[in-house]
Design brief:
The protein is an alpha/beta fold. The protein folds into 2 domains: 243 residues, Aldolase class I (TIM Barrel, Alpha-Beta Barrel); 68 residues, Non-ribosomal Peptide Synthetase Peptidyl Carrier Protein, Chain A (Orthogonal Bundle), CATH 1.10.1200. It is built from 14 helices and 11 strands. The strands form 2 sheets. Strands 3, 4, 5, 6, 7, 8, 9, 10 and 11 form a 9-stranded parallel β-sheet that branches. It has a two-stranded antiparallel sheet with strand order 1-2. The longest helix has 19 residues. It is globular. It starts with a strand and ends with a helix.
């Protein structure tokens, strides 16, 4: 797949999940075969005002390339101005968030709220593209705002006309959040409405569901979000199945615990122990999902205070599961 002048190899990318897809997780997923990654969403207003947190979020390391930076906002001029600062970190592309359903984002006119105003959405893409020049611009959208306003096809077409090089479609409305099964028909409709690459997103949890998304929608590529939580190896599984039909099993518990500890050590190395351990608690809960005795261990992990404590719990989990 090509996103503008950017050649992408592989089948699936890591979604820009706020509070999850940080540098540590992005690097880990690239190591397991993610074709590209996208930063956590960054406020265009924050970037324009020189906010330190926004500046930190848009930093990209050499180990996570190819990578893009995702921005959100509702003002075309502010969005365009923020890109001037974002380009300083040399992203391979800029992604515009038009799909976040969170009230604090959509409630302020950004994210999925832009699905209610296709004309404004088009103006934003046009303004950002003018600043980006040869750097590709991509857009992440949802099916629509609610069941009465399914307009992904129109928004995608307007984005293409404004200069977007690819569209990622999450097959749910903002109203649906993440609850019902993804609507692949909407993704298929978007694919028919534009000539640029369409990336399917939603309910992809393994190689088989990845293949089903490609076959049922005819989309060009895949983006993995919640399916990667506590499972960065999902990209390896998808790549194996789509390349030669191999079904890779879930790693044994001992390997999962090793990956968990490595992941959390990376978070601590990049953010410091205090922040890292606090953020580690949610990741540890995801890594232990489905493991015998997981509920009890998640309670302990929810009180995590150090990497030493993490390693001790991980060792106990391995013993209990006789691995």
């Amino acid at each position: 797949m090509k996103i503008g002048n950017l050649e992408i190899e592989g089948y699936a990318a890591l979604a820009p999940m706020a509070g999850v897809a940080d540098r540590a997780f992005r690097e880990l997923c690239v190591g397991y075969g993610a074709a590209y990654v996208v930063s956590e969403m960054i406020s265009s207003k924050g970037v324009s005002m020189g906010d330190k947190k926004s500046k930190a979020l848009m930093q990209l390391s050499a180990a996570e390339r190819p990578a893009g930076v995702q921005i959100f906002g509702s003002d075309p001029e502010v969005m365009a101005n923020s890109v001037k600062s974002v380009l300083a970190v040399q992203p391979q592309f800029i992604d515009i968030n038009m799909g976040c359903p969170a009230p604090k984002i959509a409630g302020n006119g950004g994210g999925a709220s832009l699905m209610r105003d296709p004309i404004l959405a088009e103006k934003i893409v046009n303004a950002v593209k003018k600043v980006c020049g040869d750097i590709p611009v991509t857009v992440k959208i949802r099916s629509g705002w609610d069941d009465m306003h399914i307009n992904a096809g129109e928004v995608a077409k307007r984005a293409e006309n404004a200069g977007a090089s690819a569209i990622t479609v999450h097959g749910r409305t903002r109203q649906q959040m993440y609850a019902p099964p993804v609507n692949r028909d909407i993704i298929a409709e978007v694919k028919k409405s534009v000539s640029i690459p369409v990336i399917g997103n939603g309910d992809i949890t393994d190689g088989i569901s990845a293949a089903e998304m490609l076959e049922s929608t005819n989309c060009d590529f895949l983006m993995i979000g919640r399916g990667a939580l506590g499972r960065p190896w999902i990209f390896q599984q998808i790549n194996a199945y789509l390349s030669d039909g191999r079904i890779l099993p879930e790693p044994p518990v001992s390997e999962r615990m090793h990956i968990m500890c490595r992941h959390i050590q990376m978070i601590c190395a990049y953010k410091g122990d205090r922040i890292g351990i606090h953020e580690a608690r949610k990741h540890a809960a995801w890594y232990t999902k489905g493991i015998h005795g997981a509920a009890a261990y998640r309670r302990q992990l929810g009180q995590l205070e150090s990497t030493a404590q993490l390693e001790e719990i991980a060792y106990k989990i391995c013993l209990e599961n006789q691995i």
